[in-house]
Amino acid sequence: MTSKALLVGINDYAPAGAGGPDLRGCLNDVKDFANTIGALGIVPIHPRTMRVVTNTNATRANILTGLKWLLAGGKKGDVLIFYYSGHGSWVIDASKDELDKRDEGICPHDFASAGLIKDDDVRTLLSGLAPGLNLDVVFDSCFSGTGTRVLPGSDSPSSAVGITPRFIEPPLDYGIYADAVPTLRVRGILKAGKGERELVMVPGLNHVLWAGCRDNETSGEGSIGGTVRGFFTYAFCKCLRGAGTNVTRAKLDSLVSLYLSRIGAGQHPQTEGTEASLAEKVFT
Fold first, then answer.
1. What pairs with residue 92 in β-bridges?
2. Catalytic residue numbers?
3. pLDDT reading at 261 higher than 80
4. Quick check: is 284 in a domain?
5. Which of 187, 90, 96, 200 is nearest to 146 (CA)?
6. Which tens digits make up the pLDDT trace of 94-108?
7. Beta 3-9 vs 164-165: how paired, if at all?
8. CATH number, domain at 255?
9. At 185, is the pLDDT very low, low, confident or very high (cuts 50, 70, 90)?
10. Model-level pTM?
């Protein structure tokens, strides 16, 4: 059995240095996630098994290359993890395969010139996964096509100040059509599930998706104990370390949701998978 992870975190968006739509907590998130899965023996912290791509290195081309490395040679029983902490956005669906007429995506460092990594791109890469391979996709970013939601101070974590939503508005040539696009919740590889449920059963799904928020929300970051963190990643790692690797995915989902509710983060994580995969122990 092989265990591998690709971890992506982007604080610095183009242009390099000051001037881009920069964030502050994503590198801290990557460190916490790497240390958590390393300490629990899920994926060893070693260049052969864990690749970390951050800031200016996290270009669209490099992230896609990393994904190909992660998935290459994957076989039944392997444990693979793709983790992303950064901005999310959307563009008009040119392939006309989305009922809400939007392709959600994650924003590489050079998204302004190279474009998003869209749900279509990820679906294509995942289409040939070997049966029985275990892939967990964890995104601490916003997939909202309906705009950002800045959380009021009264609803924010008591230790968090200056909450920043991890969402980039699409350029005007896409965003100008926003009012004409119906607001529909439709499941996609980069979207959370429909309805009010945090846990979403998706028959036939060949991976498990952990999304930091619903598809009409933003994932936020802010100062927690003096360190800027993504609220979802902070909760995910804290709950996973506390529960250990014997916890099921369904149980971990409920623990993370409860923790975020208790600290008043104002976002609702959602987890997607088959009934069988959600009942399994995490990262198995």
1. 102
2. 87, 142
3. yes
4. no
5. 90
6. 444 443 445 678 999
7. unpaired
8. 3.40.50.1460
9. very low
10. 0.83
- Which domain range does residue 218 map to? 3-279
Listing DSSP states for the chain in one string gives --EEEEEEE-S-PSSSSTTSS--SSHHHHHHHHHHHHHHTTSS-SSTTTEEEEEGGG--HHHHHHHHHHHHTT--TT-EEEEEEES-EEEEE-SS---TTSEEEEE--TTHHHH--EEHHHHHHHHTTPPTT-EEEEEEES---SS---PPPGGGS-TT--S-EE-B-PPPHHHHTTGGGS-------TTSPPSTT-SEEE-TT-SSEEEESS-TTS--EEEEETTEEEEHHHHHHHHHHHHH-TTSBHHHHHHHHHHHHHHTT-----EEEE-HHHHHSBTT-
Number of neighbouring beta carbons within 10 Å of residue 53: 20
**Band of residue 207 on the pLDDT scale cut at 50, 70, 90:** very high
Q: Taking 50 as the threshold, does the pLDDT of residue 61 lie above it?
A: yes
- For the chain, the domain total comes to 1
- Whether residue 264 lies inside any domain: the answer is yes
Nearest-angstrom CA–CA distance, 106 and 57: 15
